[in-house]
């Protein structure tokens, strides 16, 4: 009766009721999805930042005389708060690493759909993932 097609298939609402329900669903579902993505993005950014810090420390790029630098600041200058430090770290986080993670996630998701949908090519699966993630076809 009513299916929500996203521009990559032949299923779409044909009746007025189906179209109205699809629009209502979109008005409720898209903001909820965005809120979920914001929360998930915050968690993933903390995880990526922790991974990045681990890689920096493991590679030997971490300054060993950090305590000396803190002592040189003296009592008049307070070290930055933990919250400010996290924001600064996110600003210095390499964009190329985030792009790499995003591309890997999209390719992985497309590969999973390729396994589930045996009649799809990888290009079709990739198109489906990109259209679904960005809600372009809605």
Q: Roughly how many Å is the radius of gyration?
A: 23 Å
Beta-strand residue percentage: under 5%
* Global structural class: mainly alpha
Helix content: over 70%
Please work out how many helical segments DSSP would assign: 5
- Low-pLDDT runs: 1-5
**How many beta strands in the DSSP annotation?**
0
Helix/strand order, N-terminal first = HHHHH
Report how far apart the termini are.
18 Å
* Quaternary structure classification: single chain
What best-fitting shape do the alpha-carbon axes yield? flat
State the major sheet: none
Q: Roughly what is the average pLDDT, rounded to an integer? A: 72
Q: What does this molecule look like?
A:
It contains five helices and no strands. The protein is mostly helical and 138 residues long. Helix 4 (95-116) packs across helix 5.
Kindly list the characteristics that best describe this protein.
138 residues, mainly alpha, 5 helices, 70% helix, membrane
Chain-wise SSE layout:
Blueprint: H1 16-58, H2 66-73, H3 82-92, H4 95-116, H5 122-134
Helix pairs in contact: 4-5
In short:
With 138 residues, the chain is mainly α.
């Amino acid at each position: 009766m009513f299916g929500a097609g996203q521009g990559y298939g032949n299923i779409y609402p044909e009746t007025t009721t189906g179209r109205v329900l699809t629009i209502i669903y979109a008005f409720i579902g898209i903001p909820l999805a965005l809120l979920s993505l914001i929360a998930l993005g915050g968690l993933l950014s903390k995880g990526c930042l922790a991974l990045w810090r681990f890689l920096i420390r493991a590679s030997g790029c971490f300054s060993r005389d950090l305590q000396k630098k803190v002592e040189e600041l003296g009592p008049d200058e307070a070290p930055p708060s933990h919250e400010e430090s996290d924001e600064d770290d996110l600003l210095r986080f390499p964009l190329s690493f985030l792009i790499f993670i995003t591309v890997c996630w999209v390719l992985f998701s497309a590969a999973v759909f390729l396994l589930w949908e045996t009649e799809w090519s990888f290009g079709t699966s990739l198109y489906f993932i990109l259209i679904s993630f960005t809600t372009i076809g809605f």
